[in-house]
Amino acid sequence: MGRMYQKQALCGGQGGREWDDDVYEGVRKVYVGQDLSRITYVKFEYVKEDGQVVTREYGTITQHPREFVLEYPDEHIVAVEGSYNKVAMYATDVITSLVFKTSKGRTSPTFGPNLFGVVNGTKFVFEDEGKKIVGFHGRSDNAIDALGVYFVLDSPTTSTPLYKLEAQGGTEGRVWDDGSYNGVKTLRIGQDDCRITYLEFEYEKGGKSETCHHGVKGETLSEFVLDFPNEYIKSVEATYDKPSFFRNTVITSLKLETSKCRTPIFGYEVGKKFVLEKNGHRLIGFHGKEGEAIDALGAYFAPVPTPTPTPTPSIPVIGDPWSDGVYDGVKKIHIGVYEEGISFLKFDYIKGNGLVSGDVHGKMTSVGAGEFVLEDGEYLAASLDGYYKPIPGAPFGKIAALRFKTNKRESPLFGKESGEKFSLTEKDQKITGFHGRATDVIYDLMFSCRHKSIG
User: Fold this and answer.
1) Start and end of every Jacalin-type lectin domain (predicted)?
2) What is the pLDDT of residue 157?
3) N or C terminus of the chain with fewer C-beta within 10 Å?
4) Which pLDDT belongs to residue 312?
């Protein structure tokens, strides 16, 4: 069974910077600081699913914060009450009081300035029939400007966590809720000269389309089609206001942002603004309030699916890798051929004052082998060219011909001059060893080298 997290809209002012703690298994401890007029500081100790404790803090400490400790995991927060108000020297509302209530019937002290428990300002309550609060979000700078919460509930209809963002806008109208889907395919929006009057959504679920509509349909609709499933809505920015001659506060504009960076705008950007968005998630459904127009709007969000990797064509494993190691130089090359190219290689290396016979690579054929012997004072330059025949899907092919170069001369071209030509060169280096791939024939050949002045 999955989980759904209900994100309640912020209560308080518009000042400060927005923050969002997201959700956890629960809250273990709350710290609250205050001055003479407001809540200046909050700190939350959260517990993750694996038992790890995570701390988040906001605002500034002006007095020693007081704490409220829960008996985690047997106790959790089920309600937060508070107030917000304008205070001296500040242009916007700030949080002026906070009270936390738990599943065991306990109530925290009243944090914030109060006289005999009496607080000033607009009161608010976050509570939903005993649901567990598992995270907070808000706004803050030098004080706590606004606060919101996350509730959690089991969701039998989904295996992945969903977020239901509270509908914002007006408080009138009938509640509607489309629920959650695989995604949104098409939106049709109606408007008059001051508000959004109609919304129609075409959703997709289980390969089938389902259409839901709300508000009052006008004569002309604007249509926005998404490239589903390759495109999804990332966020909705909306404004709401109470237009002249109308009783209700309603949605006045909508601005969408999609995963393909398209940003259509509908209506008139008048009034207060809010944003429906959850980072790393996609919008999969709407809910809200309706009457003669759209009074309020909220949304459901789900994680953006991890892209399915495009299968990479398998590369055939051809030939066995071999490596002769590194020596002081090369004295002799034994090279065998067959009807299509090089079938056999063996190198005699110089090590100190002696010689080391390298391993046999490939297989000798009835054609036999040729030799290329280096003279005293001669060394193999780090230069190798020849021909190869590509093998489909492999990073190399069969070696068809080879030619070696020394500091004095070139060897003959061993093998067949057919296929594609190649050349490997490292300037001012000499070859000190070879490695490659082979079975009965030679598939790949590379060399090790070092600067020619060394050794």
Assistant:
1) 5-153, 162-303, 307-451
2) 65
3) N
4) 52
Is residue 334 pLDDT above 70, yes or no?
Answer: yes
pLDDT of residue 309: 61
| Two tokens, residue 194 | 């001051």
User: Does the model's pTM come out above 0.85?
Assistant: no
Compute, in degrees rounded to 10, the torsion defined by CA atoms 214, 216, 218, 220. -10
Helices (H) and strands (E) in the chain, counts: 0, 35
Tally of CA atoms within 13 A in the half-sphere of 65 that contains its CB: 20
Tokens of 71: 């008996």
Handedness of CA 83, 86, 89, 92 (dihedral sign): positive
pLDDT at 383 over 90: no
Residue 408's CB is within 10 A of a number of other CB atoms, namely 11
SS3 306: coil
**Strands (DSSP E) found in 249-340:** 250-258, 265-267, 272-277, 281-290, 294-303, 320-323, 329-338
SS3 for 61-117 is CCCCCEEEECCCCCCCEEEEEEEEECCCCCCCCEEEEEEEEECCCCECCCECCCECC
pLDDT at 167: 98
Q: Read off the pLDDT of residues 396-405 as tens digits, 9 standing for 90 and up.
A: 679 999 999 9
Contact between residue 279 and residue 257 where contact means Cβ atoms under 8 Å apart: no
Select from 318, 309, 311, 446 the least CA-distant residue to 392. Answer: 318
- Tokens for 136? 């907070």
Kindly report the backbone phi and psi dihedral angles of residue 19, in degrees, each rounded to the nearest multiple of 5, phi listed first.
Answer: -140, 155
Q: Which residues contact 447 (CB under 8 A, 6 or more apart)?
A: 382, 384, 424, 431, 432, 433, 434, 435
The pair of structure tokens assigned to 146 is: 């606004």
Structure tokens at 68: 């409220």
Tell me, rounded to whole angstroms, the distance of Cα 381 from its chain centroid: 50
> How many CA atoms lie less than 13 Å away from 135 in the CB half-sphere?
20
Comparing 39-43, 64-68, 388-392, the range with the smallest average pLDDT is 388-392
Residue 117 has what pLDDT? 67
Token pair 């205050």 in the structure block, residue: 34
Whole-number mean pLDDT of the chain? 91
Query: Residue type for 202, please?
Result: E
Q: Which two tokens stand for residue 103?
A: 């599943």
